[in-house]
Design brief:
Layout (H helix, E strand, L loop, with lengths): L7 E6 L3 H13 L4 E7 L3 H11 L3 E3 L2 H8 L3 E4 L6 H10 L3 E4 L7 H8 L10 E3 L7 H12 L5 E11 L20 H4 L2 H11 L2 E9 L10 E8 L4 E7 L1 E13 L2 E7 L8 E5 L7 H4 L11 H14 L7 H20 L3 E2 L8 H4 L6 H8 L3 H5 L1
Parallel strand pairs: 1-2, 1-4, 2-3, 4-5, 5-6, 7-10
Antiparallel strand pairs: 7-11, 8-9, 8-14, 9-10, 11-12, 12-13
Helix pairs in contact: 1-10, 4-5, 6-8, 8-11
Amino acid sequence: MPSPPSPVRAAVVGSGAIARGRHLPALAAFAERVSVVALCDIDRALVEATAAHRDIPGRYTDTGAMLAAEAPDLVVVCTPPAAHKDTAIAALKAGAWVWCEKPPALSLAEYDEVVRHERDPSGPYASYVFQHRFGSGARRLRRHLAEGTLGRPLVAVCHTLWYRDAAYFEVPWRGRWDSEGGGPTMGHGIHQMDLVLSLLGDWTEATAAMATTARATRTEDVSAAIVRLASGATLSVVNSLLSPRETSYLRFDLEHATVELEHLYGYDNAHWRWTPAPHVTDPDTVAGWAPRRDEPSSHRAQLAALLDAMARGERPPAGGPDGRRALELATGMYRSALTGTTVRRGDLTPDDPFYTALHGGDPAAATAALRRTEADTDA
């Protein structure tokens, strides 16, 4: 398939806060490379108001009608998670590339179904919004890891400690297995989990615990796991929606340095801290870490990489196997927590019930298990 024309004709499906606050501004920043030709949402009034504000000519309430009428080169999916798979497949079948919000899909089965509708070797392909891997700090650390200048990674920490009050869960699709897929492990911590795995590589086994502690949700509101990586490093993961002092904290203990990142919803170079190991005598090994350019993690940074991949007719980063890692780890964590076992990455095959749904095939039983108290367990 030939590379998309320039400017790329883009359509946005979903007109909620993430589209208005992140995707449409990012697309506008590349006006010389992208033209937003259509906006689609089931809420006609919201479509009209948003499209008028952004001067978008095509306005639709049906994705199929939009695809047929506009024939976009790129479809940006900003719907609630339950609609990700069908929207992505419809766009791919229409010949459009896809950039979809997280989580990529409700299950590995859905993710793999989308991949089957991609067209090798030159697209269209689907990729997913994991913008934190595209900031200059992460890119610099990735280079150090590839070159081995900081030694082997030994220990890592991946904490997404956020706060969401009771009103947050009053939105009908939130906190439900059938519409959100899972809780903070899927919808919140998946960003930091993707960043860690994009840096350190694949995981091999996970042992997790989850609970519904303080919010009215059918899924978890907190999770934790110890994860072994193929590199031999050990990773600690915690995801919470119950933490009043919110933070997103990553730590990498390598042979020659500790590298830390603390931010909330996005970072720049100032959010990184590098500490040399006691035996390091060359200060440039660590003190000279900072990239020359300070590019924050952002939708805009990832969009640039996506547009470059489209121009080359190549699979973009955060798609295919590269975009699957974080969803795969989340699946392993749910399977471990709900079965009380250590899960190996190779266990998540199509014949496993957690491959199809993160509740393992019985949503009511999964919800009940997450709500058990210590007294219930003792009884």
